[in-house]
Amino acid sequence: MRYHNPVLLQSACHFLAVKPGGHYVDCTLGGGGHTTEIIRLGGLVLGLDQDPEALQACPDLDGLTKVQANFIHLAEVVQTHNWQPVQGVLLDLGVSEHQINIPGRGFSFQLPGPLDMRMDPALPNTAGTLVNQLSANQLTSLFKDYGEIPVAKLLAAKIIAARPLTTTDQLASITGKWSRQAFQALRITVNDELGALAAVLPQAKEILAPEGRLVVISFHSLEDRLVKQTLKDMATLTPKPVIGEKGAKLRAYVKTFNHS
């Protein structure tokens, strides 16, 4: 099984405007789908991923430097590897097909497995930790804020009544038709996905060379809204997002100013 089929592959590379010999950062390397195309077009890639399985799945390519790191450390990693000037930064947000399809990772509400959901196995808290230890108010806020579930309070009460929960199928039997949103909310919280996204966008802006490109692929409104709000001071290449398969939205920005 292929690790992950990259969405919006051609669109992402088009908006990155890959230049031969240019330095690019793939902040979500995954199986290397986007990176492989960037290298085919002549770019050099610094590939980051917090998931060690992703780094193992990505082939060792000429022109690729692989680093196990959360993209929240983007600026530090770029400096450490002397990767500037950076012509382009790519973020393909969300969860990979591999992570979803491996029951032991605990990302899928359709496959029985442990309540894990950590992209980096070294993270301290699993989904099980949250489900079994958070209060009713905390669970309600989690489901409401990150899953946009209208019956968040009811789900929280049902979960607390059924605790302890240890497997994805146990949780899915409670969350029912809201399972997709509930599992998304837990995954976002476990991995602090929105916090990491809020932290990396200003870093990407700073490390980009003038006329450098930032391309972000998001999969839900929380991510997309954060991208628009954070980068409103940058010139938009895509006034409306490019829509791809699986609900993916691509937004691209160009840095048209020098550092002050």
From TrEMBL:
UniProt function note: Specifically methylates the N4 position of cytidine in position 1402 (C1402) of 16S rRNA.
Presence of the UniProt keyword tRNA processing in the record: no
Family listed: Belongs to the methyltransferase superfamily. RsmH family.
Catalytic activity, as annotated: cytidine(1402) in 16S rRNA + S-adenosyl-L-methionine = N(4)-methylcytidine(1402) in 16S rRNA + S-adenosyl-L-homocysteine + H(+)
A Pfam family assignment: Methyltransf_5
Highest taxon, organism lineage: Bacteria
Enzyme Commission number(s) of this protein: 2.1.1.199
InterPro entries: PYR_CT (IPR000891), RsmH (IPR002903), SAM-dep_MeTrfase_MraW_recog (IPR023397), SAM-dependent_MTases_sf (IPR029063)
Enzyme class of the recorded protein, top EC level: transferase
Annotated GO MF terms: rRNA (cytosine-N4-)-methyltransferase activity
Official protein name in the record: Ribosomal RNA small subunit methyltransferase H
Compartments, as annotated in UniProt: Cytoplasm
Keywords: Cytoplasm, Methyltransferase, rRNA processing, S-adenosyl-L-methionine, Transferase
Residues binding S-adenosyl-L-methionine, per UniProt: G32, G33, H34, D49, F71, D92, Q99
Alphabetical list of Gene3D superfamilies matching this protein: Putative methyltransferase TM0872, insert domain, Vaccinia Virus protein VP39
One GO term describing the cellular component: cytoplasm
NCBIfam families in the record: 16S rRNA (cytosine(1402)-N(4))-methyltransferase RsmH
